[in-house]
Structure prediction request, 231 residues.
Amino acid sequence: AQSVAQPEDQVNVAEGNPLTVKCTYSVSGNPYLFWYVQYPNRGLQFLLKYITGDNLVKGSYGFEAEFNKSQTSFHLKKPSALVSDSALYFCAVRDRGSTLGRLYFGRGTQLTVWP
Amino acid sequence: EAGVAQSPRYKIIEKRQSVAFWCNPISGHATLYWYQQILGQGPKLLIQFQNNGVVDDSQLPKDRFSAERLKGVDSTLKIQPAKLEDSAVYLCASSSHRGRGYDEQYFGPGTRLTVT
Prediction:
């Protein structure tokens, strides 16, 4: 069975400080990993993905994520948070061996960046 | 490039009534997805189409939910009859999905359904 865990419902950081949003996953095979962001009353927007190769993936708006196979984690990071980064963040996983390509999402983490 | 379009944006119905949602994916995207997002949870896949064929509908409550994708473009998701627990945001997404599992999905703004 495939699953995604986002252990923190809420993350609060001050503007200018680094931020981390945690994600761990469970898949039967090797994963494709994704981060999406959701702003109020809007659909999800793609941020970044891990396919293969370099464990550090860079994405939109200065975000990056680090794939750690031994810890089955894919934490989202940003060196300096902005108030405009405040949103709901979802981690998602797909088993690359699956022909159906179903994407499994975590519950989401609400990021609040205060001025 | 136009994004994924959905309508209506909001819908309020009483239980046992029926409702339909419409989705127009990004032009040229072969794969279309319908998700249900209950408050406080991540999106859950209801059904996935490849062109106009169903690839995965294992999580679709087929006794009340139905979906179709005419001519491999637009899609409609219907609920009949609705239950209180169907209150959620229904998201449509599309991807080019050229047989690559790592293609990202593009989401519409969603339809917020409230069943009273």
Notes: The CA atoms of residues 12 and 33 of chain A lie 24 Å apart. The two ends of chain A are 41 Å apart (CA to CA). Chain A is about 0% helix and 50% strand. Chain A touches chain B through 25 residues (CB under 8 Å).
